[in-house]
UniProtKB/TrEMBL annotation:
Residues 22-50 are annotated as: Disordered. The lineage of its organism: Bacteria, Pseudomonadati, Pseudomonadota, Alphaproteobacteria, Sphingomonadales. This is S9 family peptidase. Transmembrane segments: none annotated. Residues 504-719 form the Peptidase S9 prolyl oligopeptidase catalytic domain. Pfam families: Peptidase_S9 (PF00326), Peptidase_S9_N (PF02897). It comes from Erythrobacter rubeus.
Amino acid sequence: MCAAFAAALALALPFQANASNNEDQTGVTTSDTAAPTSPPVAEKREHSYTRHGITISDPYDWLYDKSYPTVDDEDVLDYLKAENAWFETKMAPHKELTEALFTEMRARIKEDDSTVPQRRGDYLYWSEFEEGAQYRKHWRRPVAGGDDQLILDETALAEGLEYFRLGAVSVSKNGRYLAYSTDTNGSERFTARIKDLQTGELLADEIPETLSGLTWLKGDTILAYSKVDDNWRVNNVRLHTIGTPTSEDVEIFTEDDISFRVGAGLSAQEDYLVISTGDNETSEVRFVSADDPTGEQVLVKPRVKGVEYNIDIRDGELFVLTNDDHINFRLAKASIDTPGNWETVIAGRDEFYLTDFELFKDFLVTEGRLNGLDQVQIRSYDAPTSAAPIAFPEASYNAGLSNNPEYDQAKLRLSYESMITPDTVFDYDVASRSLEQLKQQEIPSGYDANLYTTERIEIQARDGTMVPVSIVMRKDRDQMNGGEAGPLHLYAYGAYGYAVPPGFSTTRLSLIDRGFAYAIAHIRGGDDLGRRWYLQGKLNERANTFNDFVDVGRGLIAQGYTAEGKVTASGGSAGGELMGAIINQDPAQYGAVVAHVPFVDVLNTMLNEELPLTPGEWQEWGNPIESKQAFAYILSYSPYDQVTAQEYPPLLVTAGLNDPRVTYWEPAKWVAKLREYKTDDNVLLLKTNMGAGHGGKSGRWNSLYETAEEFAFILWQMGMAESE
């Protein structure tokens, strides 16, 4: 349900359907031919339930394998394989276009690329891709001089694996040990290992089932981590002592509320372990000495529903970011002896959304958004209300603090990009207030920013709210489209307070250079315009998110950016829910829609408290188990439940068999129901990555190829495929 990122595909022998629609007992239509000639038709099996006096029929419930997370029901697997075979069959004529898109996308990526080295302790650290490699290598060298040292080789770790993802990476303070975690099937259950960087030896210590950062404590002898339970919930902080069996690990914190998630990390001066727990609207924090992590923990302030806060500690003072007295948060401080007595340092303001802060030896940094644009502000401890904002060169951009691991730091590492400016790395000299560009993303095949233009406009939604939209396109787009309204791709997320930044994308150019405009709708549900913007798109105001997206598209049509039927759209996870809702509401607007791992079976998922994420999601969507009103409201927009007999636009849907966030059966059930109800002949495809999780295939080229497939589908449906 939340946004997330990476995974892989393993197609078994295809199980397919033919035109005669002969059904067998596997739950799908079968064929004796080797290649499917029609899409699979899922069997309907009687299933219903009643809640709050309302009875819901759900004949595709059988696609939910009740042994999940093990998926071994042959009927379910056969259906998914049949859909994969249909996907392959329909995309086969456009293989040449997909390959061409992949080739041009890959040509924009510098293959032998590396990050800018950054100092931590006695070493400079960086990572790099070698030419042709799918995964990174991680390096360091002594600040005082010496040879480069390869500390972690993802390519070697991924060898022979269908899927590989590196999770947490943490070097001990003394520089001797490297702790890291890996996921090899996309289930987001990581295994942590420890490497001795002096000897190159991989220690015997192995910690399975982790889902957290890895934090070094007590003179680099203890590793703090969190273990994930059977329901994919992180409710603990545990300590592992190097060289001891994991059975002897000590659990120092346990969260009893099943809706809360736990995390831990070090304070600015690395003298305290800070333990945080919370859900989407409430939090609670405690801290303990990093040198005595089994010692007494100090609770900062008990949880109060609706109050969020996080802390950092400097020289015996707590700094607290909280929304307790203003929706856009304030920064407060307190003595370490009376941590719950908060005194305002920076007051909350309607016009400025304070999103984060970071403490350094001689100054602090606040981050936020003013009128929806990123702000990075340097402040002194003596006069914290006086801010020195860093000036950036464009009117619309995405900027923020990057990797700044040292507490005593005179220069700040920043990241910067815009819709037309590639990813740029700066160092900001705090004393001189000057920016030094260290690196800008290289595009080997060539890129001329002067060919493109970007705009930020506002479009009025149906309730009168003005919704910001960021747009990028070619300056010669009108000529490219022969003077007619050209196609436009519209993207949004709209959930969890996540703001989609107006950033740069090399893959996006493959649409823009073919005459598309590309627009990001900053709809409610994200926090682009402040915390209230987020709250206006959740719970009982969730429909605002869907309405904003539809109305932005209609507004862009009205203003001549495109025409009806020439809007294409995409979104993933909660953004995939958005795709399901908008095609139920206004299908005629869209020429093609792509829904990645879409959260579309909202009601059933929120009713199933045994699923991994459900209890923690009630604060976002509502609890239909306890509330009849929440049940009725979710039912009114849940894309799966609202599928009706009407024409739908061409649709490509993806899923991951091992996805713990949006379980595979949500998109599978949705596609099955769409096939039953839709009255058109438009293409409907479902691709399930059988060895993957929430983010698709792993490896930079495998992932890029899936983007090429997505764009080939869009171009095909818009009549712009070279093969036509």
